Amino acid sequence: MGGKVVVIVSGGMDSVTLLHRVVACAKISGDEVHALSFDYGQKHVRELQMAVQQTRILNVPHKIVNMKKIGKQLLGSSCLTGDQKVPEGHYAEENMKSTVVANRNMILLSLAIGYAVNIKASKVVYGAHAGDHDIYPDCRKEFVDAMQVVAKLCDWTPVEIEAPFWNIDKGHIVKIGLQMEVNYKLTHTCYNGMKVACGKCGACIERISGFLKADAVDPVKYEGGWDAAVTHVKQIIDEYERTHQND
Predict the structure, then answer these.
(1) Which among 21, 112, 158, 202 is most buried, taking Cβ atoms within 10 Å?
(2) CA–CA distance, 32 with 54 (Å, rounded to integer)
(3) CA dist., res. 148 & res. 162, Å (int)
(4) pLDDT tens-digit map of 15-50
(5) Cα–Cα distance between 11 and 143 in angstroms, integer?
(6) Which range of residues forms the domain containing residue 144?
(7) Quick one: how far is CA 97 from the chain centroid?
(8) Span 86-100, pLDDT tens digits
Protein backbone atom coordinates (compact mmCIF):
# COMPACT_ATOMS: atom_id res chain seq x y z
CA MET A 1 0.00 0.00 0.00
CA GLY A 2 1.44 3.35 -1.02
CA GLY A 3 1.53 6.60 0.88
CA LYS A 4 0.51 10.16 0.02
CA VAL A 5 2.42 12.63 -2.14
CA VAL A 6 1.84 16.39 -2.46
CA VAL A 7 2.75 17.95 -5.83
CA ILE A 8 3.03 21.74 -6.13
CA VAL A 9 1.29 22.60 -9.42
CA SER A 10 1.45 26.13 -10.79
CA GLY A 11 -0.24 25.32 -14.08
CA GLY A 12 2.94 25.92 -16.06
CA MET A 13 4.44 23.27 -18.29
CA ASP A 14 7.12 22.13 -15.82
CA SER A 15 4.81 21.47 -12.87
CA VAL A 16 2.12 19.97 -15.11
CA THR A 17 4.65 17.58 -16.64
CA LEU A 18 5.82 16.69 -13.15
CA LEU A 19 2.27 16.05 -12.00
CA HIS A 20 1.66 13.67 -14.90
CA ARG A 21 4.90 11.87 -14.10
CA VAL A 22 4.08 11.52 -10.40
CA VAL A 23 0.58 10.24 -11.22
CA ALA A 24 2.05 7.71 -13.66
CA CYS A 25 4.49 6.49 -11.00
CA ALA A 26 1.69 6.36 -8.42
CA LYS A 27 -0.16 3.85 -10.56
CA ILE A 28 2.74 1.49 -9.89
CA SER A 29 3.59 2.45 -6.31
CA GLY A 30 0.01 2.83 -5.12
CA ASP A 31 0.67 6.36 -3.84
CA GLU A 32 -2.21 8.80 -3.43
CA VAL A 33 -1.40 12.07 -5.21
CA HIS A 34 -2.60 15.47 -3.99
CA ALA A 35 -2.04 18.72 -5.92
CA LEU A 36 -1.48 22.11 -4.30
CA SER A 37 -1.47 25.50 -6.05
CA PHE A 38 -0.96 29.05 -4.82
CA ASP A 39 -2.59 32.34 -5.78
CA TYR A 40 -0.03 34.86 -4.52
CA GLY A 41 -1.19 37.75 -6.67
CA GLN A 42 0.85 36.78 -9.73
CA LYS A 43 0.07 38.59 -12.98
CA HIS A 44 -0.05 35.26 -14.77
CA VAL A 45 -2.81 33.96 -12.50
CA ARG A 46 -4.31 32.33 -15.59
CA GLU A 47 -1.91 29.49 -14.90
CA LEU A 48 -4.17 28.39 -12.05
CA GLN A 49 -7.00 27.75 -14.51
CA MET A 50 -4.67 25.32 -16.26
CA ALA A 51 -3.82 23.65 -12.96
CA VAL A 52 -7.52 23.10 -12.31
CA GLN A 53 -8.07 21.55 -15.75
CA GLN A 54 -5.03 19.29 -15.51
CA THR A 55 -5.93 17.96 -12.06
CA ARG A 56 -9.46 17.25 -13.28
CA ILE A 57 -8.09 15.32 -16.26
CA LEU A 58 -5.94 13.24 -13.92
CA ASN A 59 -8.64 12.98 -11.24
CA VAL A 60 -6.26 14.32 -8.58
CA PRO A 61 -7.53 16.15 -5.44
CA HIS A 62 -6.54 19.80 -5.79
CA LYS A 63 -6.43 22.79 -3.45
CA ILE A 64 -5.64 26.41 -4.31
CA VAL A 65 -4.27 28.49 -1.43
CA ASN A 66 -5.32 32.16 -1.50
CA MET A 67 -2.24 34.25 -0.72
CA LYS A 68 -3.19 37.45 -2.54
CA LYS A 69 -2.82 39.71 0.49
CA ILE A 70 0.57 38.24 1.33
CA GLY A 71 1.65 38.55 -2.28
CA LYS A 72 0.78 42.21 -2.57
CA GLN A 73 2.00 43.25 0.89
CA LEU A 74 5.21 41.25 1.17
CA LEU A 75 6.14 40.03 -2.32
CA GLY A 76 5.24 43.08 -4.42
CA SER A 77 8.84 43.98 -5.28
CA SER A 78 8.80 41.48 -8.14
CA CYS A 79 7.45 42.49 -11.53
CA LEU A 80 5.29 39.36 -11.34
CA THR A 81 3.37 40.74 -8.37
CA GLY A 82 3.96 44.49 -8.60
CA ASP A 83 3.36 47.24 -11.13
CA GLN A 84 6.69 46.96 -12.93
CA LYS A 85 6.77 45.93 -16.56
CA VAL A 86 7.73 42.33 -17.25
CA PRO A 87 11.18 42.34 -18.95
CA GLU A 88 11.76 40.88 -22.39
CA GLY A 89 14.74 38.98 -23.71
CA HIS A 90 16.89 35.95 -22.92
CA TYR A 91 16.00 34.09 -19.75
CA ALA A 92 19.51 34.35 -18.29
CA GLU A 93 19.93 38.10 -18.79
CA GLU A 94 20.48 40.26 -15.71
CA ASN A 95 17.18 42.13 -16.13
CA MET A 96 15.26 38.89 -15.66
CA LYS A 97 16.11 38.99 -11.96
CA SER A 98 13.22 41.44 -11.60
CA THR A 99 10.95 38.39 -12.02
CA VAL A 100 12.27 36.88 -8.78
CA VAL A 101 9.53 36.73 -6.14
CA ALA A 102 11.46 37.03 -2.90
CA ASN A 103 11.72 33.74 -1.03
CA ARG A 104 8.77 32.33 -2.97
CA ASN A 105 9.75 28.69 -3.02
CA MET A 106 10.66 28.62 0.66
CA ILE A 107 7.26 30.10 1.50
CA LEU A 108 5.35 27.79 -0.82
CA LEU A 109 7.31 24.73 0.24
CA SER A 110 6.74 25.57 3.90
CA LEU A 111 2.99 25.70 3.31
CA ALA A 112 3.14 22.50 1.28
CA ILE A 113 5.06 20.76 4.07
CA GLY A 114 2.40 21.85 6.55
CA TYR A 115 -0.30 20.51 4.25
CA ALA A 116 1.63 17.26 3.83
CA VAL A 117 1.88 16.81 7.60
CA ASN A 118 -1.84 17.58 7.94
CA ILE A 119 -2.93 14.92 5.43
CA LYS A 120 -0.19 12.50 6.53
CA ALA A 121 1.75 12.70 3.26
CA SER A 122 5.42 11.74 3.35
CA LYS A 123 6.64 13.68 0.33
CA VAL A 124 6.38 17.11 -1.34
CA VAL A 125 7.45 17.38 -5.00
CA TYR A 126 8.05 20.56 -7.02
CA GLY A 127 9.25 21.37 -10.51
CA ALA A 128 12.50 23.34 -10.18
CA HIS A 129 14.70 22.64 -13.22
CA ALA A 130 18.18 23.41 -14.55
CA GLY A 131 17.02 26.36 -16.64
CA ASP A 132 15.94 28.19 -13.47
CA HIS A 133 19.32 28.10 -11.76
CA ASP A 134 20.81 31.27 -13.24
CA ILE A 135 17.89 33.44 -12.16
CA TYR A 136 16.14 31.80 -9.23
CA PRO A 137 18.27 30.99 -6.14
CA ASP A 138 15.49 28.84 -4.70
CA CYS A 139 15.67 26.42 -7.62
CA ARG A 140 19.31 25.44 -7.05
CA LYS A 141 20.27 21.98 -5.84
CA GLU A 142 21.78 23.55 -2.72
CA PHE A 143 18.40 25.04 -1.83
CA VAL A 144 16.59 21.74 -2.44
CA ASP A 145 19.09 19.94 -0.23
CA ALA A 146 18.75 22.54 2.53
CA MET A 147 14.94 22.35 2.43
CA GLN A 148 15.24 18.58 2.60
CA VAL A 149 17.07 18.94 5.92
CA VAL A 150 14.62 21.52 7.27
CA ALA A 151 11.59 19.44 6.24
CA LYS A 152 12.85 16.60 8.41
CA LEU A 153 13.35 18.87 11.43
CA CYS A 154 10.38 21.25 11.39
CA ASP A 155 7.85 18.72 12.67
CA TRP A 156 7.73 15.38 14.48
CA THR A 157 6.57 13.92 11.17
CA PRO A 158 9.45 14.17 8.65
CA VAL A 159 8.58 15.12 5.08
CA GLU A 160 10.79 14.49 2.07
CA ILE A 161 11.33 17.24 -0.52
CA GLU A 162 11.94 16.21 -4.13
CA ALA A 163 12.76 18.21 -7.26
CA PRO A 164 13.19 15.49 -9.92
CA PHE A 165 13.83 17.99 -12.73
CA TRP A 166 16.56 20.03 -11.01
CA ASN A 167 19.30 18.79 -13.36
CA ILE A 168 17.45 18.80 -16.71
CA ASP A 169 16.43 21.63 -19.02
CA LYS A 170 13.15 22.65 -20.59
CA GLY A 171 13.76 20.66 -23.76
CA HIS A 172 14.14 17.45 -21.78
CA ILE A 173 10.99 18.26 -19.82
CA VAL A 174 9.03 18.75 -23.06
CA LYS A 175 10.26 15.38 -24.33
CA ILE A 176 9.14 13.69 -21.11
CA GLY A 177 5.73 15.34 -21.35
CA LEU A 178 5.21 14.48 -25.00
CA GLN A 179 6.04 10.84 -24.28
CA MET A 180 3.25 10.88 -21.66
CA GLU A 181 0.94 12.74 -24.08
CA VAL A 182 0.61 15.78 -21.82
CA ASN A 183 -1.76 18.33 -23.34
CA TYR A 184 0.51 21.38 -23.30
CA LYS A 185 -2.28 23.50 -24.71
CA LEU A 186 -3.69 23.34 -21.18
CA THR A 187 -0.64 24.98 -19.60
CA HIS A 188 0.29 28.63 -19.18
CA THR A 189 3.78 30.14 -19.13
CA CYS A 190 3.69 33.77 -20.31
CA TYR A 191 4.53 36.12 -17.41
CA ASN A 192 2.24 38.78 -18.86
CA GLY A 193 -0.71 36.50 -18.15
CA MET A 194 -2.35 36.98 -21.51
CA LYS A 195 -4.48 34.29 -23.14
CA VAL A 196 -2.35 34.69 -26.27
CA ALA A 197 1.28 34.42 -25.12
CA CYS A 198 3.52 37.40 -25.84
CA GLY A 199 6.44 35.25 -27.05
CA LYS A 200 8.90 37.88 -25.80
CA CYS A 201 9.11 37.66 -22.00
CA GLY A 202 11.81 35.47 -20.50
CA ALA A 203 9.36 32.71 -19.64
CA CYS A 204 8.03 32.57 -23.21
CA ILE A 205 11.56 32.60 -24.63
CA GLU A 206 12.57 29.63 -22.50
CA ARG A 207 9.37 27.72 -23.23
CA ILE A 208 9.72 28.16 -26.99
CA SER A 209 13.39 27.17 -26.73
CA GLY A 210 12.33 24.00 -24.94
CA PHE A 211 9.96 23.02 -27.72
CA LEU A 212 12.64 23.74 -30.31
CA LYS A 213 15.12 21.52 -28.45
CA ALA A 214 12.48 18.79 -28.41
CA ASP A 215 11.85 19.32 -32.13
CA ALA A 216 8.18 19.97 -31.40
CA VAL A 217 5.58 22.69 -32.00
CA ASP A 218 4.06 24.41 -28.98
CA PRO A 219 0.24 24.16 -29.17
CA VAL A 220 -0.43 27.43 -27.30
CA LYS A 221 -1.12 30.60 -29.28
CA TYR A 222 1.50 33.33 -29.63
CA GLU A 223 1.18 36.90 -30.81
CA GLY A 224 2.01 36.84 -34.51
CA GLY A 225 1.87 33.04 -34.62
CA TRP A 226 4.30 30.21 -33.91
CA ASP A 227 6.67 30.85 -36.83
CA ALA A 228 7.14 34.49 -35.85
CA ALA A 229 7.72 33.49 -32.22
CA VAL A 230 10.36 30.96 -33.27
CA THR A 231 12.15 33.51 -35.46
CA HIS A 232 12.23 35.99 -32.58
CA VAL A 233 13.53 33.42 -30.11
CA LYS A 234 16.31 32.30 -32.46
CA GLN A 235 17.39 35.92 -32.85
CA ILE A 236 17.41 36.40 -29.06
CA ILE A 237 19.43 33.22 -28.51
CA ASP A 238 21.92 34.06 -31.26
CA GLU A 239 22.43 37.56 -29.85
CA TYR A 240 22.86 36.23 -26.30
CA GLU A 241 25.41 33.62 -27.37
CA ARG A 242 27.29 36.16 -29.46
CA THR A 243 27.59 38.69 -26.63
CA HIS A 244 28.43 36.06 -24.00
CA GLN A 245 30.76 33.82 -25.99
CA ASN A 246 33.76 34.82 -23.84
CA ASP A 247 31.98 34.50 -20.50
Answers:
(1) 112
(2) 16
(3) 8
(4) 999 999 999 999 999 999 999 999 988 878 999 999
(5) 22
(6) 4-243
(7) 16
(8) 667 666 666 555 555
